[in-house]
Amino acid sequence: MKYIFGWVGILLIISCTQKPIATVSIDERVLIPLPQKVIPTENAFLIQESTTIYTDTDSEVFQISQAFKRQLARSSGMNLQVEEIQTNDLSNEDGIYFVLDTDSIQSHDEHYELTTTTERVELKSNTPKGLYRGMQTLVQLLPDEIVKSSVTDSIIWALPGVYISDSPEFEYRGAMLDVARHFFSVEDVKRYIDLISSYKLNTLHLHLADDQGWRIEIKSWPKLTGIGGSSEVGGGEGGFYTQEQYKAIVSYASERFITVIPEIDMPGHTNAALASYPELNCDGKAPKLYTGMRVGFSSLCVDKALTYTFIDDVIREVASMTPGNYIHIGGDESHSTEKDDYITFINKAQEIVKKHGKYTMGWEDIQSATLSDNTIIQHWTSAKNAISGARQGAKVVLSPAKRTYLDMKYTKETKLGLTWAGYVEVDSAYVWNPKLLLDSIPQSQILGIESPLWSETISTIDELEYLAFPRIIGHAELSWSSWDILDWNSYKERLQRHANRLQLNNVNYYASNKVFKDSTVPD
Ligand code: TNX
User: Fold this and answer.
1) How many beta carbons lie within 10 A of that of residue 309, not counting itself?
2) Hey, which of 176, 405, 454 would you mutate to test ligand 1's pocket, going by the most ligand atoms within 8 Å of its Cβ?
3) How far does residue 426's CA lie from ligand 1's centre (Å)?
4) In this predicted model, what pLDDT tens digit does every residue of 46-60 receive, in sequence order?
């Protein structure tokens, strides 16, 4: 006896042998970012309550398997059993395998391979990081309801038959969140981390201090948060992360294989610090807290020895909470610092970062100083500055404002956001070749892409999501997938279908009429 269920193109045949055979086409699923190689095969794998997850004994891999199990349990109600196995002792049992294959040699540490057949799902990588990225693909191969936080009944949890071999184009795939202009809670930041991790981003740059607020507890300078943390754009109450809370963000990100890069912007963008400690000012007088949106009016006092004691303390405390290699020192728009002073300051700041065991990252403006080995510069507006930094040997992260600034309005109708770099519609955020943007920089010096979200005009997670989504999804694809396989029409079509997942996950995205045909553009 056979039963046939048709469900959005999915055919499930339960035969007399008791072994269900499911077929679902890979075309039913949306993969973003597009993997390097996708070879569809015949039969699908059906996840059932009785399916076992076999995981490598490595503790990080075990955590990844658990995360997959939890996501499936949350959305399907199925509570799969997880069993540990040794890599060289792969069982013949049917099931879902998370395999750490350290013997295979891969040129990239985020490479993974995923094979699904009727009997088994095998996800393989030679690093836990690669398995985590592959797990995101696995999730995208399941029905959209997998992103829900409540159980959906009557869903066939089938994975299409496929072989995928994948690795990223760029090693740096980032998002930046400005928590200084408006403060965002630990919960908001975790939500953003969850969302970006599903598109395989690997870096979260947190802009932790600016004129309007100081957001990270520094135990040796408590007034930074006591005073400097109490304001924000528009006069709201601000806020800050205690060191414990900040460490919780860092470890939440690291469980998702995302490195947090903390930014303490200097010598400009420092009014909150200067307002907290009069002695940091050249004239010994503290300015008022600032709640407007101007830039370029504040500067640390470059001639004072105390300035460097201050930076040394701040970088030491921040570095001690930073497992990653980089500390971002900002360095942008220091319009009220003399040019020579600026150079002196940036050179000293790089030394201090080095002293605390880290490398420096800075906005492209820092190219006027002498860049230390391994310094990364972040391009945002001046090709000339970026190129000149690259000529000193620096690697470059691309954040061209006209393409990647998530705080630019989409169109003139967009209520949130700014316009100084123009409107950035979903297509113009996507249609540019990162390898050719600054073609006088050797490709080997282009590290990747980061999408900055400045928060002058946003203060809630809904507003954050509205500006970030869907543009950041396109940036994730541009930085993961090779340009040769990308095409706006293919992306547009995938993004249209992906919208269902955003809705099921309650993401407040901008339904651009460039992409979502039947949508009216919300305000
Ligand atoms: C420029 S990008 C800035 C920020 C502003 C942003 C607003 C950069 C390095 N500096 O201070 O928030 O524009 O779009």
Assistant:
1) 13
2) 454
3) 20
4) 999 999 999 999 999
